[in-house]
Write a structure and sequence with these properties.
Helices cover 35% and strands 19% of the residues. It is of the alpha/beta class. It is globular, with a radius of gyration of 21 Å. The model is unreliable at 1-11 (pLDDT under 50).
Length: 227
């Protein structure tokens, strides 16, 4: 993802944008190619999508309409963020129907490896610590897969957080009703220690994790009988 120097690069926003996108230049060849789901060619490449997503959050746009207006009106956004030739509202909406979830996972995993090689490791004397928890994400009603309750749609992120390097290490997405306990085995690797709240208390799972060679520290209910 090489970039050409433009006169507007000296704007306050530009260094932040390039600071965030520069690590992607080293990993873009390892990202799975994004392909169109239909017969029409892609209106936005995955690189275009990622640039727009980063810019959307940097500039704190309040809607896709706001972002599209910026891509049309502002010189920096029009020349650096927008796809070559620009993009209209209808094409933008269609392009987002081919969101690169698989590609975003590739980016996350590649950047995670790079970050671990750069960030200092703490608590080495306690082993490889991974905090595990689930978090609900508000979803729009048209996201039918995000089942939660009548009149409300939510997705759930099941996250493993690397406590030694202070970065997320793995993420899985389900509908809002998705059970969190089964994801411990997917998030934890043998030799790692999971740090869990009392929701994860399940003695059958405790036995399973031990047979898998996975350690854990879990809060338990005060009424628990111990032998």
């Amino acid at each position: 993802m090489p970039h050409t120097l433009y006169p507007w690069d000296q704007k306050t926003k530009a260094p932040s944008f390039y600071e965030l996108t520069s690590p992607l230049q080293e990993i873009h060849t390892a990202i799975t190619s994004l392909v169109a789901r239909g017969n029409r060619p892609l209106q936005m490449s995955f690189e275009d999508q990622l640039n727009a997503l980063i810019y959307f959050h940097l500039e704190e746009h309040n809607s896709a309409r706001h972002l599209l207006q910026t891509l049309e009106d502002e010189e920096f956004a029009r020349n650096v963020i927008a796809p070559s030739g620009g993009i209209k509202k209808s094409s933008f909406s269609e392009a987002l129907n081919t969101r690169g979830l698989e590609q975003l996972i590739d980016v996350f995993q590649a950047l995670n490896v790079k970050a671990k090689g750069i960030l200092p490791s703490e608590y080495d004397d306690l082993g490889d610590l991974v905090a595990i928890d689930g978090s609900l994400i508000d979803a729009v009603l048209s996201m039918y897969w995000a089942d939660y309750r009548v009149g409300s749609k939510k997705a759930k992120a099941h996250v493993g957080f690397d406590l030694n390097h202070a970065i997320p290490s793995s993420i899985f997405l389900t509908d809002g009703k998705g059970d969190e306990r089964p994801f411990v085995s997917k998030i934890l690797s043998p030799g790692q220690t999971g740090v869990l709240d009392r929701y994860y208390q399940c003695h059958k799972n405790f036995d399973l994790w031990q047979t898998e060679g996975k350690h854990f520290v879990c809060r338990i209910k005060a009424s628990t009988k111990k032998q």
